[in-house]
Amino acid sequence: ILTETERHRARHEAFAARMAEEQAKLARQEHRHQTLADKAKTAKRSEAEERLALREATQPPRRR
Q: What is the pLDDT of residues 17-58, one digit of tens each?
């Protein structure tokens, strides 16, 4: 029974270590995803501002 208990303990420790590695990997992926999403959002906002500026620049001046 003691050898079986020790075998289960070792197996549990191996699973715990693997789980910690996978959680760290997932955290890095989530951070990368968030960074890329933020950059995309900034780029879209910048492009929209540029389109608006171009549209305003092509409009004739307003009369008073």
A: 999 999 999 999 999 999 999 999 999 999 999 999 999 889
SS3 1: coil
Which tokens belong to 16?
């715990």
* Assessment of whether the complete model's pTM goes beyond 0.70: no
DSSP 59: S
| Gap between the terminal Cα atoms of the chain | 96
d(CA 25, CA 40): 23
Cα angle 9, 23, 38; round to 5: 175
